[in-house]
Design goal:
With 155 residues, this protein is of the alpha+beta class. It is 43% helix and 27% strand. It has one domain. The chain has a five-stranded antiparallel β-sheet with strand order 3-4-5-6-7. A two-stranded antiparallel sheet has the order 1-2. The longest helix is centred in the N-terminal third of the chain and has 56 residues.
């Protein structure tokens, strides 16, 4: 009887290690999958934040252009973007240099402390005005994470 008992015991050796390794491997795979999903979600939320910052930069710059075109308080009734105008504009407590051409004016705004920026083009054709504002989450043109969002206003 002892011989049979020993044979059974020898055949069952290692099954506990096999089960332990299998369960450990499954847990490691599940953990790696959860970590992978979490890292992707962090990346997606970062892109969403950058996109929102770019949009808000574009929107703020467009609002600045509308204000100085419609509600110019220095010379009422005269647009700050008229080709003959020399009116300086100021938004976000910053004096802005406007490049005025025959029908279009352009300017760039930088928002501190996060260094978002926007490039604005104001086109005046008779009584029609078209404002195109392109906002960026970073002013660094070489950045791989640079996003552009645009706002266009016609009136």
């Amino acid at each position: 009887m002892k011989l049979i008992y020993r044979q059974k015991k020898m055949g069952e050796r290692g099954i506990a290690i096999y089960i332990a390794v299998t369960i450990t491997a499954a847990l490691v795979l599940i953990s790696l999958s959860i970590i992978n999903i979490a890292l992707k979600q962090i990346s997606i939320s970062g892109v969403g934040r950058d996109s929102q910052n770019a949009f808000y930069a574009a929107d703020s710059a467009a609002e600045c252009a509308i204000f100085w075109d419609v509600r110019n308080q220095i010379t009422p009734g005269v647009s700050a973007f008229d080709p003959l105008s020399v009116i300086p504009i100021e938004c976000n407590n910053t004096s802005i240099i406007v490049t005025r051409l025959v029908a279009t004016s352009t300017f760039t705004m930088t928002f501190t402390p996060d260094l978002h920026c926007a490039k604005v083009t104001v086109a005046k054709l008779g009584s029609a005005t078209k404002i195109e504002s392109r906002g960026y989450n970073t002013c660094d043109t070489t950045s791989n994470r640079r996003l552009e969002r645009a706002v266009q206003v016609n009136y």
